[in-house]
């Protein structure tokens, strides 16, 4: 009877551990068709952009299943792309690094240990120094109207890093800098297993009219003078790559407001000069061979 009880205990314990590992994978849901849309707020120099991470395909290699994660544009390296997989034995999130791994991974490096409990430290076989992280909290958080479990991580080095994984949604926020925050990236929407959460429009610029313009046009900002925010309208008559930037009087780039491909239409983008001194600034629209620059005045 004792042997039977011990045997059953081992079976139930093994099943429970496997179930927990599967749940750890929910903190970064890798499945073909899933994608994650983020807003990237940079403070030095000020700029705002939107980018997308997509799980595009999977493959079997080295007796493991990997998922290809791609991004829509070149953004900070901390949002790593490549071939990802889970270690089903301990909940580690790994990236394929052929011939450059370490024990116990010959061809992988650790991004994070999604099985971490509070105060657990990840410092073995890491992808880079930024992955030397400590799990600082495991609490509930609310994302897209749902209360879910989260795991927060912190890296303290030449640049501090804080990130949060939310169960069912993935990496929902990432901030860092030194000695103060210089960038903040947070998820504004995602598509997980066919279900859309939040705002997944890959743009931080608003289309305000469905009327097809007949020409490129950059309008005068309003209000002007402004304090501290203003709005900039522009029109494009065809699908185009659009760049809208702000410069100071010396021609130094202050902020990139738009840098993406847009459909034909009329758009509006806000500009916040809260961290800038009063003065004259210029904003420049570039699309193909078209370019136009206008002047605006901020008075505090």
CATH topology description of the largest domain: YmcC-like fold
Give, in order, the helices and strands: HEEEEEEEEEEEEEEEEEEEEEE
Task: Count up the helices.
Answer: 1
Q: What structural class should be given to the helix and strand makeup?
A: mainly beta
- Say what oligomer this is: single chain
State the distance separating the first and last CA atoms. Answer: 83 Å
The overall average pLDDT, rounded, is 86
How many strand segments? 22
* Major β-sheet profile: 14 strands, antiparallel
Question: So what's the CATH class of the largest domain?
Answer: Mainly Beta
Count of spatially separate domains: 2
Please state the second-level CATH architecture of the largest domain.
Beta Barrel
Low-confidence stretches: 2-21
Helix content: under 10%
